[in-house]
Amino acid sequence: MKRSYRILAIVEGDGEERAIPVLLRRWFQHRRFRNFETNPLAICAHGSGRLECPYDRARRRGIEHYVMIAAAGRPDGILVVLDADDECIERNAASRRPLGPELRDRARAVAPHIPIEVVVANREYEAWFLAGVASLRRVGKVPRDARVPAIEQIERIRDCKTRLRHLLGRPYEETTDQADLTEALPFTPGMAARSRSYRKLMKALDALTQAARARRPPAPPPPPPPP
């Protein structure tokens, strides 16, 4: 019997609380990892900036706080996903260290025994839906005449939610639409080419599942029955 591996997710927004577990389960299915699982809901910080800010134990802020919550569940890996908004742009302009690696190092410092990856969606999680419009259109998630944004524009778009509302032709409901649209996001070279941060997500998922297996090898087969 195969030993199961559990990857937990940490997110900032309420919509991602359901969407990222959907994405993880789809990744396991895509890679045919039948012995990987995740919880129905991600651990949610419920607020922009609560992961990036300095650790404050009393106020329950900082990525360290949420990683310790996840670590208490003894997972085989932790995936952290958050929006960049303008944070990465400002950091690059100021020649500061990129947000993703900084948060990853902070997270690993409090749980060095657990594989951890941090992915920053640039600029918003909804940018991945814009990058995947062709796939969303193909399965009927957006109208057939929805226009695919130019590749060079995907991660420069501000207020992706408004752009998505125009594509849907109706109000965009983050808490329900994120999980529904995530069901149609592809794991393809074309999608990786359209979004640099989505390409990083795919690499992080590969690294996380490989590290989980290396950390805890599969269980040996049962001994043969006695003669």
The overall pLDDT average reads: 88
Give the SSE string.
EHEEHEHHEHHHHHH
Helical proportion, percent range: 40-55%
The tally of domains stands at 1
Write down the Rg.
18 Å
Notable features of this structure?
227 residues; alpha/beta; five-stranded parallel sheet; 10 helices
Structure write-up:
- Residues 88-95 have low confidence and may be disordered.
- The chain has 10 helices and 5 strands, in the order E-H-E-E-H-E-H-H-E-H-H-H-H-H-H.
- It has helices spanning 14-30, 63-71, 87-93, 99-110, 126-131, 133-138, 160-168, 174-182, 189-194, 196-215, and strands at residues 5-11, 36-37, 43-44, 77-83, 116-121.
- It is an alpha/beta fold and 227 residues long.
- Helix 1 packs parallel to helix 8 and helix 2 packs across helix 4.
- The protein is globular, with a radius of gyration of 18 Å.
- It has one domain.
Topology of helices and strands:
Elements: E1 5-11, H1 14-30, E2 36-37, E3 43-44, H2 63-71, E4 77-83, H3 87-93, H4 99-110, E5 116-121, H5 126-131, H6 133-138, H7 160-168, H8 174-182, H9 189-194, H10 196-215
Parallel strand pairs: 1-2, 1-3, 1-4, 4-5
Helix pairs in contact: 1-8, 2-4
Structure summary:
The protein has helices at residues 14-30, 63-71, 87-93, 99-110, 126-131, 133-138, 160-168, 174-182, 189-194, 196-215; strands spanning 5-11, 36-37, 43-44, 77-83, 116-121.
